[in-house]
Design brief:
The structure holds three protein chains of three kinds.
Chain A: E1 11-13, E2 17-22, E3 25-30, E4 35-39, H1 42-50, H2 57-63, H3 71-83, E5 87-89
Antiparallel strand pairs in A: 1-5, 2-3, 3-4
Helix pairs in contact in A: 1-2
Chain B: H1 5-11, E1 23-27
Chain C: H1 13-17, E1 26-30, H2 56-68, E2 73-77, H3 87-95, E3 100-105, H4 112-119, E4 124-129, H5 135-142, H6 146-159, E5 166-171, H7 179-189, E6 192-197, H8 204-211, H9 215-228, E7 262-263, E8 268-270, E9 281-284, H10 290-297, H11 299-304, H12 319-322, H13 327-332, H14 348-355
Parallel strand pairs in C: 1-2, 1-7, 2-3, 3-4, 4-5, 5-6
Antiparallel strand pairs in C: 7-8, 8-9
Helix pairs in contact in C: 4-6
The chains are: A alpha+beta, B alpha+beta, C alpha/beta.
Amino acid sequence: MSTDFDLDGAWRLAPQVQVRPERFGALLYHFGTRQLSFLKSPALLTVISSLAAQPSARAACRAADVPDAELPGYRRALATLAASQMICRREPA
Amino acid sequence: MADHPAAQADEATEDVVADEVLVEEVSIDGMCGVY
Amino acid sequence: MTAAPVTTGPMPLIEQFSYGLDAPICLTWELTYACNLSCVHCLSSSGRRDPRELSTAECRAVIDELQRMQVFYVNIGGGEPTVRPDFWDLLDYATGHDVGVKFSTNGIKITPGVAQRLAASDYVDVQISLDGATAAVNDAVRGPGSYDTALRAMRNLADAGFAGFKISVVMTRHNVGQLDEFKALADGFGAQLRLTRLRPSGRGADVWDELHLTAGQQRQLYDWLVAHGSSVLTGDSFFHLSGYGAALPGLNLCGAGRVVCLIDPVGDVYACPFAIHPSFLAGNVRDRGGFARVWRESELFGGLRQPQSGGACESCSAYGACRGGCMAAKFFTGLPLDGPDPECVHGHGERALATADPKAAPRPAGDHSHRTRRAPVPLELSRRRPVEPARAGHPPVSACNPDPLAGFTPPAR
C-alpha cells in the first residue's frame, strides 16, 4: 500500500461516506465499498471534516493544530483513506 | 483489503513513530455478534 | 516510542471500545419468529410467529431511531424475515432513511421480479443461508427442498445482475469437508462466501454435541481461512481460532453489547443474537426512551463495556489473541464466562467441560419452534385454545397468521 499522499492537493470526503464522530475520533463508513474505517484521533476527524473547505490537506492539518512532528503520521493516515476511497481529490473550481 | 493493524504498521517506515496507526480499516462484516 | 505525546496516543480498538459507543456500529434485527423452515440448529428457535411482534409502525419507529443514532447498517433476519407482509415496505423505509440493510433469508421469496428490485438498490445486501454444498448435506440440517429453494434464489439474484450477494454457511462437522465446493458455488454465482460458527444457541443447544467441529476440523478450517484471506467473510465469528497464531481479518473481539446487539421480534434487546436468554436481556424498545436508551444506559451493556476479566485464561499465552473466545458458547455449555471457550484451540475448554455438569447448563429461552412432533394428547374432548383469548366480535387469532397486527392490542398507558 502506497504511503504517498499529496498534502498540497485539494481533497474532500467521498460522497458515499458517512462520518460518525466518536470519543476516540470517528467512524467512517463507505456505502459503496462497505468498508469501515476507524479514525483514532479527534484531530484527524477535524482534518477530514475540513478538507473540502481548505485549499490543501496540509492547510487542513495546520488548521487542526497538528504539530509538524506528527505530520508524517497524518500523511500516512490520509494515504490509507485515499487508497480505500474514503477521501478523493477535488476538481479545481 | 482488511489489513491487520500490525501489518499496516510494518509496511510504514520502521522508525519510532511506527506505533502511531491513526486509521484502522475493517470490513463491516468483521463484527462478531451479527449473523 | 515517540516523544511524550500532547494527547493520549491511539490505542488498540479493543481498549477504545471499553469506553462504549453512542450507537452500535451495526446490529442484528430479527423481524419475526415465523419461518417456513425448521433448521435443526436455529439460533433463535424459530418457526411460529410470536403474537407480541412489533407492528409496522413500531418497526418504523425503530428505524427512525437507528437513523438518528447513525447506525450504518442493520442485518435483518428472523425466522424468515420475508414472510412478514410488510417486509418490503420496511426495507424501503430503512434505505430511504440512511440505514443500510443486509437481510438474511432462506430464499423462499426471492423470485426473479424480487431479485430485479433488489439488484436496483445500492443500500441493500442479501445473504442466502446454505449449510451444504450438496442437497444431501444441506437438507439434513435445513429440511427437504431447502437446498433447491436457496439455489433458485441465487440463480435469480445472479440473473438479475446482483453481484456480490452473500452465501452464508454455518460450519458443521458434516459440511467442513465441502469448503472448496462452497467457494466454487459462490464464485459461480458471482457471490461472496461467508462462513460462520455454530454456537450452542437456540435449537443449536440440542445438536451441538453432534454438529460442532472436532479439534482437527477446527485446525483444517483455520488453515483454509488463512489461505483465503479477505475473499471469504466470517463475521468475525472465528476469532477464538486466533489462538492458533496469526489473527484472521476482523476486529477479533466479542462485539456483544459493545459494537453490536440484537433486537428481537418482540422488541427485546439482547447483547447478541446467540445469547437469547434473560441473562443477556438489556431492555425492550417499547420501554420509555426506546432503543437508544437501552443501548446507552442499560446495566447489562454497561457491565459488558467494562474491561472483562480473563480469569483462568489470563495466564495463557494465547489470551491476547483469542480473548477467551465466545461468551454465548461458554454460557450455553455451562462454562464460566471468565474461562476458556468450549472449543478452545489449546484444549482448555474440553478439559473444563469434562468436569462441568451438563445438566446444569442454561437452557435457551423462548422456543418458537414449529410443533411438528406432537406429544401424546389426553383423550378428553376440549376446544383448542386460540393464541389470545377470543374477544367479543373477534375471531381467535391463529399462531400461523403472518399479519403483524393480528391480535395486537395497544398497551394501556
